[in-house]
Design a protein that fits this description.
Strand order of the largest sheet: 6-7-8-9-10-11-12-13
Low-confidence stretches: none
CATH superfamily of the largest domain: Enolase-like C-terminal domain
Order of helices and strands: EEEEHHHHEEHEHEHEEEHHEHEHEE
Number of domains: 2
Shape: globular
CATH class of the largest domain: Alpha Beta
CATH architecture of the largest domain: Alpha-Beta Barrel
Mean pLDDT: 95
Number of helices: 11
Oligomer: single chain
Distance between the termini: 26 Å
CATH topology of the largest domain: TIM Barrel
């Protein structure tokens, strides 16, 4: 990482990822995932799951069998992405073309500022002044209003969303939201722990709320209706692009807005989410910007935009 990156649950200085690689007919497909301990995952456990499922798939390249072998999560995402990539390389038909998408286009992304003191987060916001004016501020509970106020003071025209990562209490929820609306925060992500979602039932929030830790696959969507306004679809949670695309359609049917987010990973993981991002309301695929170095070839980021032309990365 570029220095230490912190959220409410702790901080890290590196990102550990797992890459699944599938080979057939002289072609290679790759998919990257980031195991996340919040969901009981580890690098070792994900590798075991990938290898076990890979053995079962030796005789077939049917992507839809993955749902029988693995539940939603990082391991299935790596294999799902590798299947999409392999199929594109074997057939010469891009993932975009298979999904009926037009030519690649530039996409705007929010850029994340990790939890720090208000002054440090304000300095980070100033350093990002040329990044398109879309900022995602990580919160940790106590002091989050001061953090937002400090950033707003130095970035008066920026679009700001806040990600609490389950760190707020009921009391903070009721106190913070009206104040954050005053600072023109346009969305708050996962304010309460996922197991406390019932508190949000018919809660009259002055700012749209987005489910992250509470949202995984399609089976989790119905209970979010009436509690959240948006859902954050991350391929490492959904178990891959296949499930995420299906989730997007169901979310739309349920009247939920869609954010496409990511774990801390490289351009290989971000590229697999781009077909989903084109259909989303909000995009947060900035992880490579937080890394000291990215894969080569990688996506190109410029002034808060992901440039559409990314030959050779994925798909």
């Amino acid at each position: 990482m570029k220095g230490r990156f912190a959220i409410s649950r702790g901080s890290r200085t590196e990102a550990e990822v797992v890459v699944a690689q599938l080979e057939a007919d002289g072609h290679v497909g790759r998919g990257e995932c980031t195991p996340y301990s919040r969901y009981g995952e580890s690098v070792e456990g994900v590798i075991e799951d990938v290898l076990r499922a890979g053995e079962e798939l030796r005789e077939t390249d049917e992507r839809d069998r993955l749902g029988e072998l693995l539940g939603p999560g990082a391991a299935r995402n790596a294999l799902d992405a590798a299947h999409w990539d392999l199929e594109a390389r074997r057939t010469g038909v891009s993932v975009r073309a298979r999904l009926g998408l037009g030519p690649p286009r530039d996409l705007p992304t929010f850029v994340t500022i990790g939890v720090a003191s208000p002054a440090e987060m304000a300095r980070a916001a100033q350093a990002l002044s040329g990044q398109g004016g879309r900022l995602k501020l990580k919160g940790s509970g106590e002091g989050d209003l001061d953090r937002v106020a400090a950033v707003r003071a130095v970035a008066p025209g920026a679009r700001i969303i806040v990600d609490a990562n389950e760190a707020w209490s009921d009391t903070q929820l009721e106190h913070y939201l009206p104040e954050m609306r005053r600072y023109e925060v346009e969305l708050v992500e996962q304010p309460l722990p996922a197991d406390q979602d019932a508190v949000l039932e018919d809660f009259d929030s002055p700012i749209p709320l987005c489910a992250d830790e509470s949202c995984h696959d399609r089976s989790t969507l119905d209970r979010l209706v009436g509690r959240y306004h948006f859902v954050n679809l991350k391929l490492d949670k959904t178990g891959g692009l296949t499930e995420a695309l299906a989730m997007l359609e169901v979310a739309r049917e349920r009247g939920l807005g869609v954010m496409v987010g990511c774990m801390l990973g490289t351009s290989l993981a971000m590229a697999a989410a781009l077909p989903l991002a084109e259909r989303a309301d909000l995009i947060d695929l900035d992880a490579p910007l937080l890394l000291d170095r990215d894969r080569v070839p990688g996506l190109e980021y410029r002034s808060g935009w992901i440039l559409g032309a990314a030959p050779g990365v994925w798909g």
